[in-house]
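Lab meeting, item 3. Inverse folding demo.
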C-alpha cells in the first residue's frame, strides 16, 4: 500500500519539481529540531523531516547551516532554496517569502525556577528579565503583550537556558516542545518548570510552522505540500515525530 502511495505521488508531481536538487537552510542550534551531534553532523526532527520529504519528492537535498537571523536573507539571495527550521507562518513573513502548508504547530510557554512563584500576567512579570530568541514570533509576542518586561535577546534557545541556569534572566519564553526535551528533561533543567498556559495566538504565532520558499516557486511549493500530505498519510511523519516527542507535533 505504501509503495502504491509513493508511486502515485511521484507520478502526479513529476512535472512540479523544478530541480532535482534542493539546498535547505537549517539552523543546527534548536534541539531537538535541529542540532549538532558529536560527529559535527546536523541532526534533529527538522532534518529527518527534510530527508523524508526529499525522498518522497524524488529530490536530492543538501543542508546549509545558517544562523537564524540570516535565514530569510540567505533564501532570497539564493544561498538555499528552502528553509526548514521551525519557522512560523506569519503575515509579516508571508509578505517576503512563500510558505508551504504547515508541517508542525507547537505552543510557546514560559519556564522559570519551580520555586520562583512567577505569574505570567503582565503585572506578575513586570520588571522581570525574560530571555527569548530574537527575531522570532516569541520575541514579537513578548514585545507586544509584555511592555513592562525587560527582554533578554539571544541568538539561540541554548544561550537562553545557560543564562536561565545562571540567574541572568528570571524566566525564558520558548517553544514548549523544545523547552521540554532540550532543557526540562535534562540534568541542567532540574528545578525548573513551565508556568502559565500554552500560547498559540494566531496574531503572533501564525498558522503553524511551514517551509519557506522564494516567492514564485509555486511548483516547488505544490511538490512539498504533496510530500507533507504523503508522509502524514503513510505513517512516516508519526515515525519521525515519535523519535523526539511523546505527542503529535502537527497540532489540529
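The presenter then showed the designed sequence:
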Amino acid at each position: 500500500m505504501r509503495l502504491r502511495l509513493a508511486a502515485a505521488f511521484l507520478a502526479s508531481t513529476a512535472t512540479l519539481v523544478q530541480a532535482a536538487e534542493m539546498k535547505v537552510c537549517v539552523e543546527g542550534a534548536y534541539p531537538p529540531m535541529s542540532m549538532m551531534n558529536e560527529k559535527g553532523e546536523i541532526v534533529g526532527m527538522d532534518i529527518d523531516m527534510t530527508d523524508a520529504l526529499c525522498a518522497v519528492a524524488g529530490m536530492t537535498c543538501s543542508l546549509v547551516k545558517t544562523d537564524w537571523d540570516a535565514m530569510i536573507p540567505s533564501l532570497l539571495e539564493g544561498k538555499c532554496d528552502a528553509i526548514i527550521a521551525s519557522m512560523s507562518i506569519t503575515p509579516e513573513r508571508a509578505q517576503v517569502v512563500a510558505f508551504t502548508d504547515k508541517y508542525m504547530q507547537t505552543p510557546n510557554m514560559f519556564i522559570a525556577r519551580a520555586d520562583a512563584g512567577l505569574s505570567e500576567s503582565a503585572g506578575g512579570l513586570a520588571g522581570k528579565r525574560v530571555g527569548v530568541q530574537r527575531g522570532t514570533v516569541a520575541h514579537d509576542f513578548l514585545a507586544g503583550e509584555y511592555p513592562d518586561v525587560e527582554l533578554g535577546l539571544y541568538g539561540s534557545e541554548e544561550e537562553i537556558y545557560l543564562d536561565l541556569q545562571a540567574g541572568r534572566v528570571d524566566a525564558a519564553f520558548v517553544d514548549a516542545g523544545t523547552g521540554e526535551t532540550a532543557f526540562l528533561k535534562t540534568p541542567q533543567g532540574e528545578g525548573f518548570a513551565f508556568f502559565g498556559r500554552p500560547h498559540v495566538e494566531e496574531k503572533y504565532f501564525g498558522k503553524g510552522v511551514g517551509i519557506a520558499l522564494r516567492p514564485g516557486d509555486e511548483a516547488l511549493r505544490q511538490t512539498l505540500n504533496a510530500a507533507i500530505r504523503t508522509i502524514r498519510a503513510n505513517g512516516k511523519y508519526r515515525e519521525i515525530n515519535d523519535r523526539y516527542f511523546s505527542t503529535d507535533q502537527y497540532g489540529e
